[in-house]
Amino acid sequence: MTPKDLHSTVWRGPVTDQELSCLHAVAFDREQELEPWVERLERYSLGWVTVRRGELLVGFCNVITDGGRHAFLLDVVVHPDHQGTGVGKGLVHRAIEECRSSSVDWLHVDFEADLGPFSMTEGLFRRSTAGILKV
After folding, report:
1. Is 16 a residue whose pLDDT tops 80?
2. Local structure of 24: helix, strand or coil
3. Which of these, 13, 58, 71, 67, lies nearest to 38 by C-alpha position?
4. DSSP 81
5. In terms of Cα–Cα distance, which of 101, 106, 102 is closest to 73?
6. What are phi and psi of 64, to 5 degrees?
7. Which of 52, 74, 99, 102 has a 20 to 30 A CA-CA distance from 44?
8. Residue 126 is assigned to a structural domain of this protein
9. Torsion, CA 10, CA 89, CA 111, CA 41, rounded to 10
10. How many domains does the chain have?
11. Where are the beta strands (DSSP E) in 38-97?
């Protein structure tokens, strides 16, 4: 992704339930279910980042907050046809930039083990211990 392309990330850009549900379905190879994304974003999010190629939503990430000093990076997703092109990196960098200009002190993220080298070698996040429970 070139520096010019990084400007194609949009903070709190307009999105619809349909296009976010579609992006998640195609990226995670599952059947599409219409989810109430817009309601969730407005209710829980500090903000979100989008990337479009023309009218098509090709990248998205969500930054939710506890209402205080902590935020959490969730739902980083890139359309399969655009993976490996820097879209994901642009999403994460923009989310970090926006968090730094807010009242947030900490941005938490978890990720699959195979994504660890990107997040660690880029110096974006430091490793910490955490627990997770599927309920």
Report:
1. yes
2. helix
3. 13
4. G
5. 106
6. -95, 165
7. 52
8. no
9. 0
10. 1
11. 45-53, 56-65, 70-78
Tokens for 91, please give them.
Answer: 């999403």
Buried b (16+ CB within 10 A) or exposed e, 38-63: eebbeeebbbbbbbbeeeebbbbbbb
In angstroms, rounded to a whole number, what is the distance separating the alpha carbons of residues 78 and 83? 6
**Whole-angstrom distance, CA of residue 94 vs CA of residue 49:** 7
State pLDDT tens for residues 95-133: 999 999 999 998 988 766 665 555 544 667 666 666 664
What residues make up the domain containing 79?
3-121
**CATH (domain of 11):** 3.40.630.30
Task: Provide the pLDDT for residue 134.
Answer: 56
Nearest alpha carbon to residue 90 among 40, 53, 64: 53
Q: For residues 132 and 135, what is the distance between their CA atoms, to the nearest angstrom?
A: 10
Which of 18, 46, 44, 43 is closest to 33 using CA atoms? 18
